[in-house]
Each structure stands twice: as structure tokens, then as C-alpha cells.
Prior knowledge:
The chain is mostly helical. It contains two helices and no strands. Helix 1 packs antiparallel against helix 2. The model has no long low-confidence stretch (mean pLDDT 91).
Amino acid sequence: MKEDNQLHILKKIETDKEQQAITAMQSAQSYLQANQAKLKEVQSYKLDYLKKMQSRGVNGIGGASYQHYQRFIVQLDQGIAAQMNVVDIAKQVLEQRKQEWFVQKNKVKAVDTLLTQKAKARQQRIDKYEQNQSDEFASQQYIRRQMANKMAINS
């Protein structure tokens, strides 16, 4: 019984850890999605900016304005590269959190399996004890009947 209580405490601890792993995984998923959205936003802004530059270029654009546009495009490209790096790292973190959750989930499953095996073994011991008691009772009844029959014949 004491061992079962310890197993139930262990299951509670491992289940709490699993919930923490789920929360960490969800947080990593949200972080990834937010950074993917930022990346799309910057890429979309760059595309809009290029379209605006192209439409202005049709009418003619001065050298200083062209250089300004070019520098800004380079900055946007650098920002996109940096954001892509953040997204890649966020994907790695999410994958790590998934693996941590999976390991923790398996620990909970292992404790559950052990608890089930212990309960099954305990029930088998109870069933065996009850069967032995029933057999003993039937045996005692048989012996009493035999003795009663012998006494009845001898009387």
C-alpha cells in the first residue's frame, strides 16, 4: 500500500511535469507563429516598397532618391534575414519542446502501466485468497458431513 501511495505521488509529479511541458510547447508554438507573422509582414512590406520604387522609376527618379531606395532595400533584406534566423531558432526550440513533452508523456504512461500492473497483481492475490478461503470452507463442510454420516451409521 505504501508503495502504491508513492506511485500515486510520483504519477502526480510526472503529470504536473507533463502539463508544464505542454505549456512550454504551446508557448514555443505561439512564439514561432508570431515570428512567422513578423517575417511575412516584413517580406510584404519589402514587396510593396519595391512596387512603389518601380512605379516611381517609370516617371524617372533622381540618383539620390535611387540610392536611398537601395539602402532601404538592403536594410529590409537584412531585417528579413535576421527574422528568418529568429524563425529557424523558434522552430528548433519548438521541436525540442515537443521532444521534452513526448519524453514526459512516456514517463506518465510508464507510471500508469506500473500502477495498473500493481492493481492487477493485488486483485489476483485477493482472488487467490478468496478462492483458498472458499476451498477451505467447502473442505470443512465435506469433513463435517462425512463425520455426521459416520456418526449416523454408527448410532
